[in-house]
Amino acid sequence: MGDQDLSTELEGQGYQLTGRHSAVKLCYWTRASLTEGRDCYKGRFYGIQSHRCLQMSPAIDACNLHCRFCWRNQGWEEDGMMPEYDDPDTLLDRSIDAQRRILSGFKGDPTMDLDRWGEAQTPRHIAISLTGEPTLYPRLNRFLELCHARQITTFLVTNGTNPDALRHLDPLPTQLYVSVTAPNAEVFRRLTLPAHEDAWDRLLESLEIVRSLGTRRVVRHTLVRGWNLGWVREYAALDQVARPDFIEPKGYVYMGKSRQRLGRDHVPVHDEIARFAADLARRTGYDVADESPDSKVVLLARPGAERFLPGRAPAN
Fold it and tell me: Please, is 245 exposed, middle or buried when counting C-beta atoms within 10 Å of its C-beta (0-12, 13-18, 19+)?
């Protein structure tokens, strides 16, 4: 796919391009927070304000996995570091400008909370996820530094197959998510279709690194019925390697391009996720701290871990 075709397709899907390989997209929960006063599970779990959250990626066309459950298009992306990359200072400014452009169309909505709309013009949180593998962006450290200098908290989501990037993160994100989407190498190979043969070994190395990082750490298990839901003993062993502050078992959502790879029968119900989480809690010694049935996710917390970000109250 050519650059122009890719740009056209991404823009048609609601992405605001902010550079050669970067984009912003309004999250469903940002809209829900503005028009319905409903926050996403990260608000319930950690105190994030969804209407002041900016969802972006510095790597829309770079990923070294081709996960069957991913909602994005696949087949056109690079699987390694970018030879040319967006300037992080410009990227942050463009990301905030893009969010404001998206939000400008909401002001006339009669369901809009105008106080929240005004607050949303100044994001307090950036979710560095959306699409692609953000640790493939070579200036990620500088981008994190700039966010934190503006008092913007950051959640960085990684697939864990770039351990060198995790080892050299400086500053650390406010909260680091590592996706552990398989209990063993064989399931990982069949479900994530990695670009590199040693991807599973890289993930195991990352879990060792995560254990020692001095920031809030989360392991997320995206669970697909018939593919990777089960194997609780093996997941527990992986979680014990990382010893994160939190574990999030979360059900696969049937959306985007994943519908071309998986069927509705692969979508677990919340009760399945809750049973998995309860078993995982017993095996790891973590507490079942909360759940969000709407998002089919359960929060497991390491005993003594502080759930909410400093200065943030739990969302309603």
Answer: buried
Extract the runs of DSSP E, i.e. beta strands, from the chain: 16-17, 23-24, 53-57, 125-128, 153-158, 175-179, 216-223, 246-251, 287-292, 297-301
- For the chain, how many structural domains are there in total? 1
Q: What is the CATH number of the domain that holds 50?
A: 3.20.20.70
pTM: 0.94
pLDDT in tens, 241-264: 999 999 999 999 999 889 999 999
CB neighbours of residue 280 within 10 Å: 21
- pLDDT tens digits for range 108-138: 888 889 999 999 999 999 999 988 999 999 9
Which tokens go with 29?
Answer: 């929960």
**Closest-CA residue to 161 (of 80, 246, 224):** 80
Q: Domain range holding 183? A: 3-301
Q: Return the closest-CA partner of residue 225 out of 255, 264, 277, 190.
A: 264
Q: Which residue has the tokens 């080892």?
A: 167
